[in-house]
Every structure is written in structure tokens, then in C-alpha cells.
Design goal:
By secondary structure, this protein is of the alpha+beta class. About 30% of the residues lie in helices and about 15% in strands. It has helices at about 5-15, 25-40; strands at about 45-50, 60-65. The protein has a two-stranded antiparallel sheet. The chain is extended and about 55 Å long. The N and C termini lie far apart (about 40 Å).
Length: about 90
């Protein structure tokens, strides 16, 4: 089955960051970091970004509009990614 032009571009972009067989763990991690950076869109404009660290918990990334806080506070949306990092314990 032939891939669409869009899918061909996606595969090419992904493979540009692939690691050769037999690469070390450090090389694989570096390749993954390069690939993730290639697919990460720029941060939204008009927002400040802050990473919040809490010991024993994942890092939270907070986006807040630039400007004074409204009297009632900012509306909030919490997004939890349900990837492979979730644990049953």
C-alpha cells in the first residue's frame, strides 16, 4: 500500500532522527530527544510558561496569560496525558 505524501513526510522526518542498530542507550536517548524536539511545536504566544516541580511528583507545565490576574482568578484546564508512564500502584 502506498503512503500518502503527508505520511511519507512524517516517516522521513521521524527516520531522520532514528538511531542505527546497536546504538548505545545514551545514543538512543539523544536520538529520541532530537526527534521529540523536531515534533514539538513552539510555545503559544501571549502566554508565560512555567514548570512547577514537586518532589516525588511529575513536573507540571503551567501556561498563564501575560497580564494582571483577574479578581476571580484564571479559568483552569488540567490535562493529564495517559501514556505509558501511568502506574497501577
Amino acid at each position: 500500500m502506498k503512503l500518502s505524501p503527508g505520511m511519507q513526510a512524517l516517516v522521513a522526518k521521524t527516520m531522520a532522527h532514528a538511531c542505527p542498530a546497536g546504538a548505545s542507550l545514551a545514543e538512543e536517548r539523544a536520538a529520541y530527544s532530537r526527534m521529540a524536539a523536531a515534533f514539538t511545536p513552539p510555545a503559544p504566544t501571549g502566554l508565560e510558561e512555567q514548570d512547577v516541580l514537586a518532589p516525588g511528583h511529575p513536573t507540571l507545565r503551567c501556561y498563564r496569560p501575560i497580564g494582571p490576574r483577574p479578581p476571580a482568578g484564571w479559568p483552569t484546564l488540567l490535562y493529564l496525558h495517559g501514556g505509558a508512564g501511568w502506574s497501577a500502584t
